[in-house]
Amino acid sequence: xxxxxxxxxxxxxxxxxNTILAFFAGFIAAARxxxxxxxxxxxxxxxxxxxxxxxxxxxxxxxxxxxxxxRKRMRWCPFCLRAIATRAKKCPYCHSAVEPPQPKEST
Length: 107
Ligand SMILES: [Zn+2]
What we know:
Largest sheet: 2 strands, antiparallel
Radius of gyration: 21 Å
Order of helices and strands: HHHHEE
Helix content: 55-70%
Strand content: 5-15%
Strand order of the largest sheet: 1-2
Number of helices: 4
Oligomer: single chain
Number of domains: 2
Distance between the termini: 63 Å
Bound molecules: zinc ion
């Protein structure tokens, strides 16, 4: 096996491993309120180093809250504008009584 073939197969393994890691990075990034696409690409290039960087990178609480509100897992407190549980009757941050959630069709 010539050097070119060794380099090619190593590159293939490296690329395959990074592709798998990149999908993980996408999930981790989403859970931490970070850019899925951005971290996918970073991990595709830098592999495990990017995953470690992502783990050390602080969670973007604002973006994470916005995502949860969009997915109806949380909603905004009308008084202090922070994300609170969908079914909360009282805001845990400003202690205001908030409107009960809209009645949904049978759950
Ligand atoms: Zn509040």
